[in-house]
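The protein record quoted in full:

***
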Amino acid sequence: MIAVFVNCGAVIAGSIIGLFFARRITEEMSSHIQTAAGIVTMILGIQMAMQYHNIVYMTLSLIAGGIIGCLCDIDGKILKLGNFLQRLCFHGKETPFSEGDGNSRNFAYAFLNASVLFCVGAMSIVGSFKAGVEKDYSIIFTKSILDGFMAISFAGAMGIGTAFSAIIVFLYQGALTLLSVVIQPYVSQVLIEELTAAGGAMIVMIGINLLNLKKIKTANFLPAFILEILFVVLIK
């Protein structure tokens, strides 16, 4: 579990650095930071999405998963969790580094988007398996460095909610690490590629949100991961 704590620490440290610099920049510069974060996020997402093994799997998974997520309102529930964390930690007061109206929404959206960004992708899955089974922490340590730098950009663009995504990172990667011995036999290279591609598509959605091109409820597409697993396992 040491690798999980390191990853969470990197997210929190990166967020603090991002918030520190965010207080010292103008609104125009903040807009530039958000744009840069959006572009980098989209590039990362496109690179991941292109690793698909079967484009049909990803297409059906995203469409059907999005419908399921919409019916369950997963995005709304995670936003409510973000708002709950804000009330719990700040007792309804203005959050640190905030500047007035809309901070509750910004906190929740930062928490939501950062949680999805830091948890999807092959490095989370493979890194957790290697940490749990082989005690090899190299992948998670590498991911921690990348997440730390992304947290700087995200926190500077979206606020302190980014730091609280470390809670989701801890629960998600911690669970994968603990369950790795049981899950590992069922994980193939094809499955990792498909999950990486679906995660990349969701990261592209986050980039689109950051660029204010369209407001996409990214978390509603999370059921696509379950569908991807079913496609790969059941259709051979």
Notes: Residues 99-104 have pLDDT under 50 and may be disordered. Residues 2-234 form one domain.
